[in-house]
Amino acid sequence: MAALWRLSVLCGAREGRAGSKAASLHWTGERVVSVLLLGLIPAAYLNPCSAMDYSLAATLTLHSHWGIGQVVTDYVHGDAVQKAAKTGLLVLSAFTFAGLCYFNYHDVGICKAVAMLWKL
C-alpha cells in the first residue's frame, strides 16, 4: 500500500510536466491498482478481516479517484474550472477514504457489510 501511495504522489507531482515518463508511471500505477483489486476482492470474500477492509478502502478510493480524475480531465474545460473540479475531487476522495476508514473502525467493515447485503 505504501508503494501505491508513493506512486500516486510521484505521478501527481509530475503531472504538470510534459514527458512520457510521468504518464507511463501513472498508467502503470493504474494497472497495478486494477490488478490488485482483482485479487483483493476474492481474498476479502474468503478472508474478511480488518486488514482486508482497510486495503479495500485504500485501493477502491485510489481507483475511483484516478478514474473520476480522467473524466474531469477529458470533459471539464477551462483552466479555472478544471482546477476547481480537481480540488473538489481531491476533497471528495479524502472524505471517501476517511468515511470508509471510519466505517471499518466503528462498524462491521466493508467485507462484512457486503456479506450482510448479500444475505438480504
From TrEMBL:
Location within or outside the cell: Mitochondrion inner membrane
Q: Which UniProt keywords apply?
A: Electron transport, Heme, Iron, Membrane, Metal-binding, Mitochondrion, Mitochondrion inner membrane, Transit peptide, Transmembrane, Transmembrane helix, Transport, Tricarboxylic acid cycle
Entry GO CC: mitochondrial inner membrane
Query: Which InterPro entries does the record cross-reference, listed alphabetically?
Result: CybS, SQR/QFR_C/D
Q: Where does heme b bind?
A: 63
Gene3D superfamilies, per the entry: Fumarate reductase/succinate dehydrogenase, transmembrane subunit
What does the record give as its pathway? Carbohydrate metabolism; tricarboxylic acid cycle
In the UniProt record, does the keyword Nucleotide-binding occur? no
What is the recorded membrane topology of this protein?
Multi-pass membrane protein
- Work out whether the entry's keyword set contains Repressor: no
List the GO molecular function terms: heme binding; metal ion binding; ubiquinone binding
Q: Residues that bind a ubiquinone, according to the entry?
A: 75
For this chain's UniProt record, which GO biological process terms are given? mitochondrial electron transport, succinate to ubiquinone; tricarboxylic acid cycle
A Pfam family cross-referenced in the UniProt record is CybS
Q: Which family does it belong to?
A: Belongs to the CybS family.
Per the entry, what this protein does is: Membrane-anchoring subunit of succinate dehydrogenase (SDH) that is involved in complex II of the mitochondrial electron transport chain and is responsible for transferring electrons from succinate to ubiquinone (coenzyme Q). SDH also oxidizes malate to the non-canonical enol form of oxaloacetate, enol-oxaloacetate. Enol-oxaloacetate, which is a potent inhibitor of the succinate dehydrogenase activity, is further isomerized into keto-oxaloacetate.
How does it associate, per the subunit comment?
Answer: Component of complex II composed of four subunits: the flavoprotein (FP) SDHA, iron-sulfur protein (IP) SDHB, and a cytochrome b560 composed of SDHC and SDHD.
**Under which name does UniProt file this protein?**
Succinate dehydrogenase [ubiquinone] cytochrome b small subunit
Q: Which gene encodes it?
A: SDHD
